[in-house]
Request: fold
Amino acid sequence: MQPEVVDQYDVVIVGGGLVGASLVVALAPLNLRVALIEASTPPQTGPSWDERCIAINDGSHRIFESLGVWPALLSEASPITSTHISERGRFGVARFAAVDVGLPALGYNIPFRHIGQTLWQAAQKTAARLICPARLQAMEQSADAVQLLLDSGEKISTRLVVAADGAQSAVRKLLGITAQTQDYKQSAIVTAIRVTRPHGGVAYERFTPGGPIAVLPKPDNACSLVWTVPSDHVEAMLAWSDAEFLKQAYETFGERLGNFKEIGRRNAYPLTQVMSAQLTAPRVIFAGNAAQSLHPVAAQGFNLGLRDVATVADVLATAADPGSAETLAEYERRRSDDRERVSGFTDRLVRTFSNRVPGLRGLRHLGLLALDLTPPLKDAVMRQNLGLGGLPSKFARE
Reply:
């Protein structure tokens, strides 16, 4: 015997990570019945100097301001006042500075923990029902609703499902929707370092044949370090002593920040691009990593997902039926170009700067010089990196 439907909602969000929790907060001002399904209770860990961070751009900063969570996030945010992009062994450099566009910062480097805790606390203050811990077991679509069965046996009904449940989306799999996966055969080793020269708010991205090494500002002369390397090198690199790892990272990065004198915990993450074959399905929207999971080069992934959130909220603000075909088509229309542009941009960066074809290094060198010296090209890339490339949202007005 099927469990009875006990609750009905306008919107059910599957996945309570950064994107899902952001959407709960974004929908709070609307007259909608909202529920969130999240499998894991958010951990209540405290801060540490070497914790993992996420770089958000100015567009994301504006969205967080509109959501009312920016004052809380700012307490642990390190401003990125400029970026410095180079290639190991070449002189070509591209520089971008906040002062050039009249901003206090191009973006901010913020602990993942702090963003998650801040958004979850904000979500708990809304009228939304947070069903946690709970897992989605089955879905059944009809013309005017979606029935969701949870692992507790509870069955709920909603007019719209927003899948924000990550690159291996359970919603996508339950619906039989495919995803294109590109395995870069690279992994990101993520840690933190202390440096002997003040970083001055500069974020560095240095391309090497094995992959980029990124160094981003943290408080107290500490920096986030994201070192992309061939996956078959990871095991050996994680086995290095701290001194050996610091030595190799310093030699790869260079002298701009002085010596690397202390290192935190190291974790490795395999890198793939996962693109859902569809942005929508009947009465379903995909957002964040459930729609597209990108290589971390240029730190575009979460910022793109937050623009998904802003667009969902924008579209639902005027929708008579949250899950209607017209609502889904409008979301897809507003997100498709931004999604394709950013995913293509990150993919080309990885392929171009990891390619060892003879003669290509010289072209990359000239490309970095041209980027730094050609104002229209530099402005276009700056706009993209600030997160202003998509259709405008009321959550991120220019």
Observations:
- The longest helix spans residues 325-354.
- The chain has eleven helices and 20 strands.
- The chain has two domains: 5-80+107-181+273-385, 184-271.
